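lol ok so funny story. i was supposed to be doing the assay writeup but got distracted and ended up predicting the structure for this chain instead. priorities right. anyway since i did it might as well share w the group, maybe its usefull for someone
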Amino acid sequence: MAEKDITEKNLEALNDVFADIVNVLLFKGEQVINEKDLEADTTKSMFKADGKIHEQERDVSKFWKNGEIRISILGIENQTAQDSDMPLRVISYDGASYKQQLLDNKNQKKRYPVATLVLYFGTEEKWAKAKHLYDCFEVPEKLKPFVNDYKINVFNIAFLSPKTIAMFKSDFKIIAEYFRAKRLNQKYKGSKEKLKHANETLKMFSALTGDDSFEKVYNEGNFNKGGITMCDVVERIRNDGRTEGRTEEQERIIMNLIESNAGTIEQIAAWVKLPVKEVQKIARKVPVNV
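and the output, tada:
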C-alpha cells in the first residue's frame, strides 16, 4: 500500500497537475490557481496518543500562496476503495495543519484555511460510505447541538461527465478518461494527446489499476522521439499481449508434439520455425515419464 501511495503522489505532486485537479474539481475549470503559486508542504504531521508521539501522513498537500502570503493549504487523498473512517482521517489531517499554525504563532504568521479533496477511483458505484463526521457514529439528539459535524469533499473520478473531463489540461485528464471508460465497460483506445509526464502518469496507472503493463511498456522504451501518447501505450500493451498469447500457444503445440513422439527436436524446430535451442528449452518442461 505504501508503494502504491508513493507512485500516486509522483504525478499529483507536480504543480501543473495539482493545480489542474483543484481548478477543475473545485472551481469548475476556472483557472483560479496558478501552478507558480503552489509550494510543497510537508505531508507529515505528529500527534500524541497514549503518551507517545505518532506520525501521520497526507497523500499530497500544497501551500497556495499569493507572493509570500499563504492563502490556504490544499490536500489530496487518493482512494481506490471506500473507507467508512474517511471523515475521521481527513479531520485529523486538517486538524494537524491548524495545530501547526498555532505552533507557528510565535512568528506572527497569518492564519489560513485548509481544504482536502478525496479522489475516489472506484468504478462499480459512487462513494457510498461516510461523507460526514455524523456518519461515523451515532450522536444522541440532545448532544447534536454541541457536536460539530464535518463534511469531506469526495470526487468520483470514474463518474465525471465528459464535459468535466474535457476541462482538465494536464495528464490527469488521461487518468479520468480511462476510469470513465472502465466504468462504462468501454474499450479504452487511449488519447492521441502527448503525455507531458509519461513516466509519472504510467506509474500512477499501474498503481491505481494493479496492472504493471503500463509501467512495463514505458520502461521498455523504444517510443518515437516526438513523445508518448496513451494510444501508443495501449497499442503496445495489446501487441505484447498478442505476442505472449502466440508464444504460449506455440509452446503448447511443441510440448504436444514431443509428448506424442511426432518427430525429433530438429524436425519439430523446423516445423514451428524456431531455433533448435528454443525447442530444447521447451522440451525440458515435458515430464520425464512421458
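The first helix runs from residue 2 to 12. Confidence is low (pLDDT under 50) at residues 45-55, 240-245.
back to the writeup now i swear
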